[in-house]
Amino acid sequence: MSEPYVKINIENEVGYIEFFHPAHNSLPGAILAELAQVITDAGANDAIRVIVLKSGGDRTFCAGASFNELININDEATGKVFFSGFANVINAMRKCPKFIIGRVQGKTVGGGVGLAAATDYCMATKFAAIKLSELNIGIGPFVVGPAIERKMGLSAMSQIAIDANTFYSPEFAKDKGLYTHVFDSTEALDEAVKTTAEHLCTYNTEAMLEMKKVFWQGTDHWDTLLAERAVTSGRLVLSDFTKEKLKGFK
Question: Residue range 23-35: average pLDDT?
Answer without folding.
Answer: 96
